[in-house]
Input
Amino acid sequence: MGKEARDLVELAATEESVSELLRRGLDWLTRITRFDLATLFLLKDERLVAVAARGPLANAKVRGHVLDLAKFPQVRQALETRRARAFTEEDHTSEGDPFDGVLDLPPGHSCMVVPLYAGERRYGVLTLDRAECETYPQSVVELVEVYGQLLATALQNAEQKAAFERLHRQDHEHAKLLESQLGGDSEGILETSLSPVMRDLARRARQVAETDTPVLLLGETGTGKERLSRAIHRWSARADQPFVTINCAAIPAGLLESELFGHVKGAFTGATKDRAGRFQMAHGGTLLLDEVGELPVELQAKLLRALQEKTFEPVGSDRTVRADVRLLAATHVDLQQAIAQRRFREDLYYRLSVFPLRLPPLRERMEDLPQLCAFLLEEQSRRTGRRGMRVTPEGLERLAAYPWPGNLRELANVLERATILSSGSELGEDAFDLPARAPTETPRVHAPALKPEAVPTLAAVQREHILRVLALTKGRIYGAGGAAQLLGLKPSTLQSRMKKLGIARQEHFTIEGLS
Output
């Protein structure tokens, strides 16, 4: 009997079709006892419907047979009490044979009814019939009863597997839809970059994309780590499978384990049904752990095991789930420092950082600014409805003069805000509302005492200072290193002040001319 149990468990884990499980389950019944007909009925409402039959007496009429439980109280009793029973000639006489009108079996023939149940679920009954007029021995009835329980448990496992596969397909389609909505054409921006650093980064990213090696994406906030991870997914052999992302810093620590690994019904308050986690959703595809540096220490060990063995247990379950996932991780946190502070496991770090890729901040790739602006404006047009927007050369000079602490994310926000507020299709220097740069501390200087008659007017001091700055920039007002940037003014504001102070635009300014 032990071999039959192992066979059924293995079958439930591998068969795609529940009907195939039932068919082969009946075939294996021959190892236990003799029969001329073995029929498996599944319970539907208050009727038993034959779904499989085996043996010399099996035919099309048997396989389509339906029993009304109201007409067979002893069959109903076996199902309700969960006890198998052998029918005698007296039982057949008082109640009739379940196969009357279908088979011509003699009164008193061997007949057995075995209930199929698993947990609280009643699946139906298994009936065994022989043309010989004798009663099945009780020892055989008890043995087949145990087999019926095993068959019902295997049936339950097969149904759960089918439900999981159905859920996975739904999650797969949902993830693909989100990917198509959020992906953008990041690959083009990476590979056509004018920055040598970015071109080298794209080359290495393409190389590692062809493998299943974990990749650790490093860089300041807003440098485009998620965009790069989507590009790696599209360049990989898993491109047709889901790309799933989870932000480890955005989900409360108490819920993060369930989000990653899923949970079963009743695992905690509010868990009203089984729910797949991100690992299950990403099965066959790619999972991005964004802000992995914020992952709670208590979850890091379970994540490490999932990476090493590709298995895990959902919250509240002792059932091991296998998921084939290619892992990418992203963070702006200094993980070496986090390791020193015991906030991050060293063994997990080495597992994640097999192939690190560091994204440069925007201020180190300003040669890409025109291309990035065009890409982001086109991408935003789907949300804003403003197509054909462009940044003028003067606007680009204004943007290039800003240090961009928020990198690409801040640039995208500035462009979207300017697009919404602008009445035209061109974004010039005045279209951008950039925060003022924080003044740097300068050492305190003690100014020499002045006589009252030697005190210059404020306008005179401003005029001389502007002239000196213009001399320093050789008359250039706009752009990085221009007079407006050095003075901390908008170019339009500086021009207005120059006009008020009587400073005319000149091609060249010299320090000597101010003395």
Observations:
- Confidence is low (pLDDT under 50) at residues 11-16, 175-184, 438-447, 510-515.
- The first strand starts at residue 37 and ends at 44.
- Residues 184 and 379 are 7 Å apart (CA to CA).
- DSSP finds 20 helices and 15 strands in the chain.
